[in-house]
Write a structure and sequence with these properties.
214 residues; alpha+beta; Sulfate adenylyltransferase; three-stranded antiparallel beta sheet
């Protein structure tokens, strides 16, 4: 648990935003970018990841008589107790006076933020990467951070990733569904078959009353 709570942004797609709002998604996985691993075979089974201080994790292997650090990475999402504000595709509808045919003011429309994940249809959207903090409607509190190989994900964790269970389909179980979801996003750089090291972040919706007191 961090002594000082920090906030950081995180991007989610529309389906994942809906899964968070529906309470189905409480985990997310992102690829770890290790440093100091020149020439190291990351698929070597003798490697282990350990939290060494704060957000810093080390990639370890057993040497002649002890564990040795082979690389390290700082978690960009923080530590338990920190918060993440969600960036999603949106549109800022600016308010202003509504005038009649002769220019008289009939009403005043307030500013409004419209979110694509809600099923709204517009011709022009602002990409999630450009969402400012004030436009975000979802704040998450980190409850756990760990590092593992992607293929170590369990049935339970696949469900926590927000995939839906469809028993009528051969590939409808959580693990095949998550594998398909992962490759739909990461196949070009870090496909499921490459079994990359990933950050596993668990979270819950932050208490909105507490958020307002910050």
């Amino acid at each position: 648990m961090s002594d000082v709570m920090r906030e950081r942004p995180i991007l989610f797609s529309g389906p994942m935003v809906r899964a968070i709002l529906e309470g189905r998604k409480t985990q997310a996985r992102r690829v770890v970018k290790w440093t100091g691993i020149d020439g190291l075979n990351l698929s070597f089974s003798g490697l282990s990841a350990s939290n060494i201080a704060g957000t810093r994790w080390a990639l370890m292997s057993m040497g002649a008589s002890c564990w040795q650090e082979r690389g390290h990475a700082d978690c960009p999402y923080g530590v338990p107790g920190d918060r993440l504000w969600v960036r999603e595709t949106f549109y800022h509808m600016e308010g202003g006076p509504i005038r009649d045919a002769v220019g008289g003011v009939m009403d005043v429309m307030e500013d409004e933020i419209v979110y694509r994940a809600d099923g709204n249809r517009l011709l022009k959207w602002t990409p999630s990467i450009h969402m400012p903090r004030w436009a975000s409607r979802i704040t998450l509190e980190l409850t756990d951070v760990r590092v593992q190989r992607l293929q170590e994900i369990s049935h339970h964790d696949a469900l926590a990733e927000g995939v839906e269970y469809d028993v009528s389909r051969e590939d409808g179980a959580p693990l095949p569904r998550f594998r398909k979801l992962w490759d739909s996003i990461n196949a070009k750089t870090h496909p499921w078959s490459s079994n990359p090291w990933v950050w596993v972040i668990s979270f819950k919706l932050a208490n909105r009353e507490d958020e307002g007191e910050q």
